[in-house]
Amino acid sequence: MSTKEKTLEEILLKEEVLTQNEIVLYNDEVNTFDHVIETLMYACDHTPEQAEQCSIIVHYKGKCTVKTGLYDDLKPRCSMLLEAGLSAEIV
Predict the structure, then answer these.
(1) CA separation for the pair 56, 82 (Å, rounded)
(2) Do 25 and 88 contact (CB within 8 A), yes or no?
(3) Does some domain include residue 6?
(4) Which Gene3D superfamilies match (predicted)?
(5) Residue 19 falls within a domain, yes or no?
(6) Model confidence over 21-70: pLDDT tens digits?
(7) Which helix (H) or strand (E) holds 42?
(8) Does the N terminus or the C terminus of the chain have fewer Cβ atoms within 10 A?
(9) Does residue 39 lie in a domain region?
(10) Residues 86, 24: contact at Cβ < 8 Å?
(11) What is the extent of the structural domain holding 49?
């Protein structure tokens, strides 16, 4: 009679979960398209095309995610948007 030895190996995977946050920009009836576009280019490093597209989405949909990343990177960017008179929050 032969005996087979079974070895079970437990593999532990350590996963580092990076939480991605978003800056959401909301529509308002105060700021012009030009102001929103310029502010997005400055605060979020958008290209003129990206900024224009986001401003159009915000206008018609009421809100738009304008930047995604780590909270520590988004916090000063969101503060710049708020200081410029835009409505935004990190979610």
Answers:
(1) 19
(2) yes
(3) no
(4) 3.30.1390.10
(5) no
(6) 999 999 999 999 999 999 999 999 999 999 999 999 999 999 999 999 99
(7) helix 33-44
(8) N
(9) yes
(10) no
(11) 31-90
